Amino acid sequence: MDVGYHSYETESTHTAGKVITCKAAVAWGPGQPLVIEDVQVAPPQKMEVRVKVLFTSICHTDLSSWKGESQRLTLVAFVLKNEAQRAYPRILGHEAAGIVESVGEGVEDMKIGDHVIPFFQGECGTCICCRSRKTNLCQKFGVNPLKSVMVNDGKTRFSTMDGNPIFHFHNTSTFSQYTVLDSACLVKIDTKAPLEKMSLLSCGVSTGVGAAWNVANVQPGSSVAIFGLGAVGLAKIGAITEGGVDYSFECVGNLEVLREAFLSTHTVTPSSYHPASDFPVSSIVVPLYSSKCGMHIQGWVLTVLLGIHQAQCCCLSIQWSYLTDAKS
Hints:
Residues 46-189 form the Alcohol dehydrogenase-like N-terminal domain. InterPro entries: ADH-like_N, ADH_Zn_CS, GroES-like_sf, NAD(P)-bd_dom_sf. This is Alcohol dehydrogenase-like N-terminal domain-containing protein. Pfam families: ADH_N. With 328 residues, the chain is α+β, with helices and mostly antiparallel strands. It has 2 domains: 12-202, Medium-chain alcohol dehydrogenases, catalytic domain (Quinone Oxidoreductase, Chain A, domain 1); 204-324. The protein has helices at residues 12-15, 60-67, 128-131, 195-198, 204-215, 231-241, 258-263, 292-295, 320-324; strands spanning 20-27, 35-41, 48-57, 71-73, 80-82, 90-91, 95-103, 115-118, 158-159, 165-166, 178-182, 186-188, 225-227, 247-249. A 5-stranded antiparallel β-sheet has the order 6-1-2-9-10, with no helix packed on it. α5 crosses α6. The two termini are 39 Å apart.
């Protein structure tokens, strides 16, 4: 989504250190239509960056959060809370590309004019998770759907025109012409990279590619099955086999995506597939939580689960044999 800017030049010499008035898509409640309205964006504080958002895209996580569908188990008393319990109003969005408008005190790795993309899974670089090569689930800037303010002072950088707070989303809030982020939640990119395409790297593409390269560690000759063909699934297909996997399955019953599933495989094509063919699953369309997602793959398998779940899907029943029969 192009938010209305056709020039990549910043006006930071006129705006740095000042409150900026701009347009944003504000969510006033779960499921309520987003309202395009004027908001005020405060200057960045210590270790924060204010970004002029040039392009932003919509991820299914934004949609689920807007509907109030997703749910999180909090660490305090293990209480389940869903999106409807989050603070409103707020500004959604976490996939974007833009230019640094100004930086706060202490920011040394970014400067005015740098091209950047936001990253909702920030990295402080010092916690035990950031220091480990096995995970990047930062203890300070990790994903927390219930987080609604900045880490530095527990306040928001957005407000209505009459001064009431507007809350943050996923460390990013990109459905605004300007946004303020912790510097740990930004990545600088090459200025030659086309910004209109870079927003997808914030989540969909990087999630799929990262799962294939860093988590699953797919090697040449591996057999791979992809369940779910959204942006994440399609990115994974492109990353691991230059456009083809052994098997792919559309998991939510969207018949329009079936052709994508067929075309992404080395095993079957739309013209050759028929129900009686020798295919290693009993159905092309399988529920995401079906046993078929795990049991129709041969042994020594690594299963990687990605994405968010709906509030009504907070618990899964898994047969013991799934964990013991040569799978991980």
